[in-house]
User: What shape does this take?
Amino acid sequence: MDRFYGALLVLGAAMPFIYDPARQAFLPARHRWEWQIICWGNAAEDWSGK
Assistant: This one.
């Protein structure tokens, strides 16, 4: 189970560099830190149960 969540975390961290939601395409983008921080914030809220 820990491996599953570890892989999920790695995939989630890499996803902003792989998938571009604005273009709905799997392409590398230049400035994705904003999107990555938003994703991490949403995940942290989900994990905290809020």
In short: The chain has a mean pLDDT of 68. Residues 6 and 40 are 14 Å apart (CA to CA).
